[in-house]
Amino acid sequence: MGLRRGSTAAAAGLRRRRKKNGAGATGGAGNSISPNIILVMSIGFIAFVVVLHVVGKLYLVPREAGRS
């Protein structure tokens, strides 16, 4: 029974702390972005870098370098 009371008190303390902060540990109001958006933006950035790498390899290599 003592464990139950302690965990309830700890949970209540966490709730109070969250309410004081307002937006939680992530930042101020209006700065929340969903994890799905972060994932899509990250994958898009990686794809963009890969495309730039391929374009650079195909079009920016001197023409005479590959011929003998």
Automatic annotation (TrEMBL):
Any GO BP: protein transport
The entry's keywords: Membrane, Protein transport, Translocation, Transmembrane, Transmembrane helix, Transport
GO terms for cellular component: endomembrane system
Region (Disordered): 1-33
Top-level taxon: Eukaryota
Membrane topology of this protein: Single-pass membrane protein
Location in or out of the cell: Endomembrane system
Bias (Low complexity) ranges: 1-13
InterPro entries the record matches: SecG/Sec61-beta/Sbh
Residue stretches spanning the membrane: 37-60
Keyword Membrane belongs to the record: yes
Family membership: Belongs to the SEC61-beta family.
Protein name per the record: Protein transport protein Sec61 subunit beta
